[in-house]
Amino acid sequence: MTDRDDLLKLVRDLAVVKGRVTLSSGQVADWYVDLRRLTLHHAGAPLVGRVLLDLVDDWEFDAVGGLTLGADPVALAMLHAAAARGGRTLDAFVVRKSDKAHGLQRRVEGPDVAGRRVLAVEDTSTTGGSVLTAVEALREAGAEVVGVAVIVDRGAEKAVRAAGLSYRSAFSLVDLGQQG
């Protein structure tokens, strides 16, 4: 089995939860993908890092991150996977949901992204709202966003592409055996 196969099995086993939930987009669904159960799991996190690095291997960027909290463990998994592979230096960053009123008052935390090529990530996305909020903050901070990558796409691809961004997902609803 490949890393992607192993990751898909873990997504299905750990993260797909049946039951009525309200998503961050406000939409109601009969099932939920709780990817924090995967991205914070001892076996899941390393797989996330390797699979997403493979997914965007042909994109040039030197920092990765997105809107806290869904993107944080994804970015860190990719940072660690890149370090373990060698040959690629990758920083991570965190985009706050709102401006910080104290300290350095930075919305994008971590190494400075100004003038850098960055990848925006998210664990899962339905409407693209969270990742597009992160993209806006990154551009305001002076970053060049090369694209968006997510573990599971629940339908955001169209909105992200409409915003002029390249988009890739490791898995779709079809891969999970789910319908919208």
Word description of this protein:
The structure is a single chain. The model has no long low-confidence stretch (mean pLDDT about 95). This protein has a 6-stranded mixed sheet with strand order 5-4-3-6-7-8, sandwiched between helices. It is of the alpha/beta class. A hairpin with a 5-residue loop joins strand 1 (about 15-20) and strand 2 (about 30-35). It has 7 helices and 8 strands; from the N terminus they run αββααβαβββαβαβα. About 35% of the residues lie in helices and about 25% in strands. It starts with a helix and ends with a helix. The chain has helices at about 5-15, 35-40, 45-55, 70-85, 130-140, 155-160, 175, and strands at about 15-20, 30-35, 65, 90-95, 110, 115-125, 145-155, 165-170.
Write the layout of secondary structure elements.
Blueprint: H1 3-15, E1 16-22, E2 28-33, H2 36-39, H3 44-55, E3 63-67, H4 72-85, E4 91-95, E5 108-109, E6 117-125, H5 129-140, E7 144-153, H6 157-162, E8 167-171, H7 173-176
Parallel strand pairs: 3-4, 3-6, 6-7, 7-8
Antiparallel strand pairs: 1-2, 4-5
Helix pairs in contact: 1-3, 3-4
The 3D shape can be described as globular
Main beta sheet: 6 strands, mixed
- Helical segment tally? 7
Give the mean pLDDT: 93
Gyration radius over CA:
15 Å
How many DSSP-defined strands? 8
CA distance, first residue to last residue:
27 Å
Order of helices and strands: HEEHHEHEEEHEHEH
β-strand percent reads 25-35%
Structural category: alpha/beta
